[in-house]
Write a structure and sequence with these properties.
Elements (H helix, E strand, L loop, with lengths): L3 H8 L3 H21 L1 H6 L10 H17 L2 E2 L1 H28 L4 H4 L2 H20 L7 H20 L14 H23 L11 E2 L3
Parallel strand pairs: 1-2
Helix pairs in contact: 2-4, 4-5, 5-7, 5-8, 5-9, 8-9
């Protein structure tokens, strides 16, 4: 009997799955940029590139899915999507939970439906990054470029105070959150060095590469 896990893994790169996840991630990315509209408007335009962290990550993964559906691949975009999708997926869930636990009301009352929706969607982001890492074809140089960008983004977020707005209950902990974010960046880079650089028969080497 085929297990549920085996059924899932066997369908990850099927066209119907790629196009379905493409649609879901595309809609989620559009909503994510809309979610940041007020912070983008309140931030100097030259810094806006560093503001919408999660939708930028999900947009990169959306592009990875599109390329796979067209039998193409971009190792650099794969590396960017893997690291940032996992990092910001975990980050958002952790921050929302911490904000709820620090709120002056009972935990179940501290979270709105949008918080649960965000936790579900960001958990999905992190899971997608891990599941699809079996197909990625990036190399060490791609991870190094993504690492440089990721650490630059962390510096911009917490030195210039343009990180995603925190729940009011933990807004005074931005320094601690900054250290957590930096640590999460390093963990994400290490994780996807382990997952993405090891030999696997599933990697999409046969797809035509675009870019570097």
């Amino acid at each position: 009997m085929i297990s549920l896990r085996g059924l899932l893994m066997g369908n990850l790169d099927r066209p119907w799955m790629l196009w379905s996840l493409f649609a879901v991630n595309l809609l989620g990315s559009i909503y994510g940029f809309y979610w940041y509209k007020e912070q983008l408007a309140a931030t100097a335009s030259w810094l806006n590139l560093f503001v919408p962290d999660s939708p930028t990550a999900s947009s990169a993964f959306t592009l990875v899915l599109l390329l796979y559906a067209l039998r193409r691949r971009s190792p650099l975009i794969e590396a960017f999507a893997a690291v940032t999708l996992f990092k910001y997926g975990v980050w958002a869930v952790a921050v929302i939970l911490l904000g709820g636990m620090a709120a002056p009301v009972p935990f179940p009352d501290s979270l709105r439906w949008t918080d649960w929706m965000l936790m579900a969607s960001h958990t999905g982001m992190a899971v997608e990054a891990i599941l699809y890492s079996r197909f990625f074809t990036y190399q060490q140089r791609h991870l190094m470029l993504v690492g440089a960008w990721t650490l630059l983004n962390d510096g911009m977020d917490y030195l210039l105070d343009i990180h995603p707005w925190l729940p009011a209950s933990i807004s005074h902990l931005d320094g601690v959150i900054g250290l957590f974010t930096l640590g999460l960046s390093l963990v994400s880079l290490l994780l996807f060095a382990l997952l993405g650089l090891s030999p696997r028969k599933e990697r999409k080497w046969e797809y035509r590469p675009i870019g570097i």
